[in-house]
Design brief:
The complex is a heterodimer.
Chain A (H helix, E strand, L loop, with lengths): L3 H8 L12 H4 L2 E7 L2 E6 L8 H14 L3 E6 L12 H9 L2 E2 L24 E5 L7 E6 L5 E5 L4
Parallel strand pairs in A: 2-3, 4-7
Antiparallel strand pairs in A: 1-2, 5-6, 6-7
Chain B lengths: L1 H20 L8 H28 L6 H6 L10 H4 L5 H22 L5 H29 L3 H18 L7 H4 L10 H14 L21 H16 L6
The structure holds zinc ion (ZN).
Chain lengths: ~160, ~240
Amino acid sequence: MVTTEQIWKLLNDVADPEIPVLSVLDLGIVRDVNVSGDKVRITITPTYSGCPAMNTIETDIREKVQGLATVDIITQLSPAWTTDWLTESGKQKLKDYGIAPPVEGGTGMFENPQVSCPRCESANTKMLAQFGSTACKSMYQCQDCFEPFDHFKCHR
Amino acid sequence: MKQDYVLHLADTHLILGQRLGEWCGHNVVLEQDIAMSNIALDLLGQCRSLYQYAAELGGNKQTEDQLAFLRGERQYKNHLLVEQPNGDFAFTIARQFFFDVYHQLLCEELVKCSDKQLQAIAEKSLKEVRYHLTWSSEWMIRLGDGTTESHQRLQTAVNELWMWTHELTTTASYEEALDVPRPSDFKAAWHAKVSAILKEATLEIPAESTKQAGGKEGVHTEHLGFILSEMQMMQRTYPGMTW
Ligand SMILES: [Zn+2]
C-alpha cells in the first residue's frame, strides 16, 4: 500500500529540468496528491502558460511514481501559480546556484526591482533585459564584481 | 457558438505568436530576440489552453493540434492586425503594443465572465500580459522619443497599422450571443491607454480613416494564407506525422 507521504517524498526528487537545483516541490507547482488504493492523482499547475518544461516534468513524475501506483496527472490553471509559492529552501537553493531569488517591485515602465548580486551581495546591480533564457527569469549584471546573473522574476 | 469564440481567441494568440517567432535568430540585438521569443512562447502556451478547451467544446472530434494546424483559411478567426507582416522593428513593436493594450483589457474582463475555464486561462494570462505591455510600451517611448530616424519609422508604423486596430474593439455576433466581454465596451479604455503612451512617445495619434475588419468572421488579408501554408506544410504533406 502506497501512502501520501511516500508520494510527496518521491516528488521531492523530481527536479525542474530548467533549474535542476529546484525540485517540483521547491517550485510550488504540486497542488495536491490524492491516494486511493493503488491509484494516485497528482495535481500540478504550470509556472508560465508556455513553460516548455511542463511536459518533461509530467513524464518525470510519472516515471518516479509508476512502479508504486497507477498515476493520473491533472493540470490545473487556477489559482494561477505565483512566486510566493516558492519555498524558503527553494529560494536559498536558487541563490546558492547563482540565480537571485524573486524581488518584489519595479513593475512599472522604466522601473526595475532592486536585486542584490547573488555572488557578492552588492546592491549595485543593473538590469540588462526583462526577459531571460527562460520565461521565469530576467538578466542582470553586478556593477561591483561585474558578474552577469539571472533574476527569478517576481510573478504575482 | 462558444467554440467559435474560443477559436477566435486561440487563433489570434497563435498567429501573433507565429509572427513574433519569425524574428527568432534575426532580431536587432540578442536581448530583444530573447524577449520576442519569450512573448511568442507565452502566447503559444495561452493558445494551447484555448485550443484544448475548444476541442473539448467540440466534443473532442478534433484534437488541439488539428484545430491549430488543419483548418482552412476562412475558418481562422484571428484579428487582421496580428497577421500583418513583421515589417521593421518599429512596425513589430507598434503591432505588439496595440495588441497588448487590447489583450490586457480583455483578460481583465474575462476573469469576471461566467465561464470557469476562460476565467482560469485569463487569470493565468493576465500576469504574463502585464510584462508584455510594459515591454512594448517602453519600446514605443524609447523609439518615438528617440532619434529622428526611430521616431519617423515608428510614426510610419503607427499610421500604417492604425486601420487594423479598429477590429480589436469590435464585437462579433458570437460575442453578442455569449456571456463574454464585448470588446466594443472597452473601446474608450483602449483609446485612452494608447493615446497616453503615444503622447509620451511624442507620436501623433492618426486621424480616423479607413477601418478594416473581417478577420473575426474568417475574412482575411492575403497574408494569412502564406502563414498557414508555412505552418501546415508538414501535416498536409505527411498527414498524421509525429515527431
Ligand atoms: Zn557582485
